[in-house]
Amino acid sequence: MECVDICSTADRLGLSDNQVTALVSATLKAGGADLDKFVISTSTTRRNRMLTRYHISQEYMAAFSEDPPKYAALHWDGKMLRDVWEVIWDHVRDSGCACLRTTCIS
After folding, report:
1. Are 54 and 86 within one domain?
2. Are 23 and 52 contained in the same domain?
3. 51 Cβ partners below 8 Å, 6+ apart?
4. Is the dihedral of CA 51, 56, 61, 62 positive or negative?
5. Are residues 93 and 48 in the same domain?
6. Residue 55 belongs to what domain range?
7. If residue 103 lies in a helix (H) or strand (E), which one and from where to where?
8. 79 and 55, same structural domain?
9. 54 and 81 housed in the same domain
10. What is the C-alpha separation between 100 and 102, in angstroms, rounded?
């Protein structure tokens, strides 16, 4: 399962590796595929999801590094991160910075 669309959708829906494995095998079976010809296991699903996330993050980091914005903010789980002095940078939120995953584009 090295499909970016399946991995991204599963992450957005909050599906576990077991749920994704069951969904992929049910989809293959419904499509008439012979399940013996596929490697379907939770550990394989987990490894491929981690690999896909890694490739996606590398693409975003490369795009971000090519043309970094003057100002950026990092949001993690929808929360502003505090700096080492426990100061929240509220002005960054109002500066017209749009966040896409962990990459910010101004």
Report:
1. no
2. yes
3. 2
4. positive
5. no
6. 1-66
7. strand 103-105
8. no
9. no
10. 6
Amino acid (1-letter code) at residue 1: M
Give 29-72 pLDDT, tens digit per residue. 999 999 899 888 999 899 989 998 888 888 888 888 888 777 77
What residues contact residue 71 under an 8 Å CB cut-off, 6+ apart? 92, 95, 97, 106
Q: Which two tokens stand for residue 60?
A: 């975003």
H or E segment to which residue 79 belongs: strand 79-80
pTM of the predicted protein model = 0.59
My answer on whether 75 and 60 are in the same domain is no
Beta bridge partners of 75: 80
2 within 8 A of 48, measured Cβ to Cβ: yes
* Cα-based torsion angle of the residue sequence 48, 51, 55, 61 in order, rounded to the nearest 10 degrees: 140
- Locate 62 and state its tokens: 């490369």
CA 55, CA 10: separation in Å to the nearest integer? 16
> Rounded to a whole number, what is the distance in angstroms from the first to the last CA of the chain?
34
